[in-house]
Design brief:
mainly alpha; globular; 5 helices
């Protein structure tokens, strides 16, 4: 799973890889899980990481569980203080 963490961090820092990832995952909800994992394996290999289907599944499961349990510091600030990100301050919601 360490390879998947490294890939995740690499994608988070690289806008080109982010675009490739988005394209790879396009329409992912419409195909079987095995097909999505296969696409992710190809994406990882092209990014320089050789991962197994089990590593991908374990990483995605851990990521999903973490996201369900934890809020980021900025999310906590917004909830606790009713703050809104600066990018949205001038938008009128009515």
């Amino acid at each position: 799973m360490e390879k998947m963490k490294a890939l995740y961090e690499k994608v988070a820092k690289d806008s080109k890889l982010q675009e490739q990832f988005i394209e790879t995952m396009k329409d992912a909800e419409k195909v079987a899980e095995d097909a999505v994992i296969e696409k992710l394996m190809v994406f990882a290999k092209e990014a320089g990481y050789d991962v197994t289907p089990d590593e991908i599944q374990a990483f995605l499961k851990a990521l999903s569980e973490k996201q369900k349990k934890e809020l980021s510091d900025s999310e906590l600030d917004m909830v606790a203080g009713g703050k809104m990100p600066s990018a949205y301050r001038n938008i009128k919601f009515y």
